[in-house]
Every structure is written in C-alpha cells, then in structure tokens.
Design a protein that fits this description.
CATH architecture of the largest domain: 3-Layer(aba) Sandwich
Mean pLDDT: 95
Helix content: 40-55%
Number of helices: 10
CATH class of the largest domain: Alpha Beta
Radius of gyration: 16 Å
Structural class: alpha/beta
Distance between the termini: 6 Å
Length: about 210
C-alpha cells in the first residue's frame, strides 16, 4: 500500500455525534439571540474558525468575549448529551480494513477526548491520540503538524480522513492526502467543492485512502 499511515478525525467522522452537535450549537445560537437551525443548514454553513460559523448563523459579528461565552454554552450542552453518541455504523470495520498504521487527531479537548476514545474501545488500535490542548479557536493545520512530528512522519506518507473543509486544508498544508466523509458535520456538496474525494461510508473512505 502506497500510503503507510492513516490519521482519523473524531467528531463527525469516527464518532457519530452530528445530532448532538446540532443541538448544542442551537443552544449557543439561542443564547446569542439567534434562532435554532436544522441539520441541513448546519452542514452547509459549518466552518472553522468557529467564530466565523457563529457569526454567519447569528448574522452579525460577535462582541468581544462573546465567542467564549457561546462556546461554554455549546460544551455544557454537548457534554450533557455525549453518552448518547455511538461510533459511526462502520467505524470499527473501517479501522480494521486499513493495513497500515493509524492515529487520531481531533479538535475536541484532549483531556476529554482520551476517555471517550477509551470508552469506545479504540485506544489499542491507534498509535497516537491527540486533541486540542489549548482554548484557541485555530485551524487544524497546526495540530496536524505537531501530530505528525510526534509520530516522525512526513505529510506525503499520510492520508487524513475527516468530515470538514478544515480537515482538507490541514492535509494540503502538510502535503498529505485527504478523503472527506459525507456523513459528518459538512454537507457533501460543500465537501465536493474542495476537489478532494468524498466517501459516503467510512469503509469507502478507507478504500479511497488506499
């Protein structure tokens, strides 16, 4: 197999948490004086940095300090519902179908990510698991660079499977390949516009990655 290492995204990719994310986002939007949105609109407008996503849905720039307040509302709602989330239907099958090494990189907070990956029984299958270790609303690129450096891997030796435009941009920035998963936070039409291959199942994503 030409590509020897696979980097998985977590939220919206291996973890099937779109319903919970939409509900938590709506809690934040209502807190900010906006209206709830449905999953289709969420998937069409979702973007990073998240401050741009909140601003787009609320239809106005955020006031100083407001983003942190909205994020607090989001995470309180998200964590209250998290135990209802399972893995994507074919996540384990997809992981088992990859012949090379694998790791996981998430924008979810690292200290909360590890227990969740452990709860779903995936820790032993992954060489490394990294989440966000600071509170900055930054793109994934910097985290991916650090993740690969820790694994002593170069971008061209890697393929990333994720569900967002930010995943695609991060992969391009380090010279990695990318397959985008249409079952997560971003609408398939938005993903297709990036020019990267789009898969409708995780098993298909692994096949494309290979």
């Amino acid at each position: 197999m030409g590509t020897r290492h696979l980097v998985w995204d977590w939220n919206g990719t291996l973890l099937d948490d779109l319903t919970v994310v939409v509900a938590a986002s709506n809690a934040a939007f209502v807190h900010g004086g906006g209206e709830p949105i449905d999953a289709d609109r969420h998937r069409r407008e979702y973007r990073r940095p998240l401050v741009d996503f909140y601003s787009a849905v609320l239809g106005r720039p955020l006031a100083p300090g407001e983003f942190d307040a909205l994020e607090d509302v989001f995470y309180r709602s998200y964590r209250a519902q998290l135990l209802s989330c399972g893995l994507a239907a074919d996540a384990v099958e997809a992981i088992n179908s990859w012949e090379g090494t694998q790791s996981l990189l998430s924008m979810y907070h690292h200290d909360r990510l590890i227990p969740e990956v452990t709860r779903h029984g995936l820790v032993e299958r992954l060489l490394r698991i990294d989440g966000r270790r600071d509170v900055a609303d930054l793109p994934k690129e910097g985290l991916l660079r650090s993740h690969l450096a820790s694994l002593e891997l170069a971008g061209p030796d890697v393929v990333l499977i994720g569900d967002s435009v930010d995943d695609a941009r991060a992969a391009v920035a380090v010279g990695a390949a990318c397959v985008l998963y249409a079952g997560g936070f971003t609408h398939p039409e938005v993903l297709a516009a990036t020019g990267h291959p789009v898969a409708h199942t995780l098993v298909e994503a692994v096949s494309l990655a290979g």
